[in-house]
Amino acid sequence: MRIAIGADHGGFDLKGKVIKYLKSKGYEVKDFGCYTAESCDYPKYGFLVAGAVGNKKFSRGILICKSGIGMSIVANKVRGVRAALVSDVESARSSREHNDANIIVFGSKSMNIYKVKKMLDVWFSTRRLGGRHLRRVKQISDLEASQ
């Protein structure tokens, strides 16, 4: 699986740990930046990752900023992206089962690598559910297409 990852300065340190973890699990990872802890603006990196996932060049994406909110907002502006800001294992599972999320977003201020590893393991192994959940995801896609 090909994974796109990006962060601003607030998520820079955690991003490095996540990349190391993903590579140890055999994932192919592309780092879209930022590349230093120097202050920067998150929209650029969120948009790069979301574009790569929305265009299906990467199966999934990971975004990190201090709160996770800004990255979630920018990523969800991109057609085909369903970015979910998660806070625990259950929200990570639900984001896949119910929403078929293709980007997971972390707020570095409230996360550590141990918690993130658990959420990623669940997120990557969880399949979307069908039925009413699939119908709702299709409704979201239809709304996107109508704009």
What does this structure look like?
The mean pLDDT is 94. The protein contains six helices and five strands, in the order βαβαβαβαβαα. The chain has one domain (2-145): Ribose 5-phosphate Isomerase B, Chain: A, CATH 3.40.1400. The protein is an alpha/beta fold and 147 residues long. It is 48% helix and 16% strand.
Task: Give me the secondary-structure topology.
Layout: E1 2-7, H1 12-24, E2 28-31, H2 42-54, E3 60-65, H3 69-75, E4 83-85, H4 89-97, E5 103-107, H5 113-125, H6 131-145
Helix pairs in contact: 2-3, 4-5
In short:
This protein is of the alpha/beta class and 147 residues long.
Task: Describe the structure using short key phrases.
147 residues, alpha/beta, five-stranded parallel sheet, 5 strands
Strand numbers in spatial order across the main sheet: 2-1-3-5-4
Structural class: alpha/beta
Q: For the residues shown, what is the average pLDDT?
A: 94
**Number of discrete domains:** 1
**What is the terminal-to-terminal distance?**
31 Å
Helical percentage: 40-55%
Number of strands: 5
Sheet of most strands: 5 strands, parallel
Extract low-pLDDT stretches: none
Over all CA atoms, what is the radius of gyration? 14 Å
CATH class: Alpha Beta
Shape descriptor: globular
Estimate the strand proportion.
15-25%
CATH homolog superfamily: Sugar-phosphate isomerase, RpiB/LacA/LacB
Helices and strands, in N-to-C order? Answer: EHEHEHEHEHH
The CATH architecture would be 3-Layer(aba) Sandwich
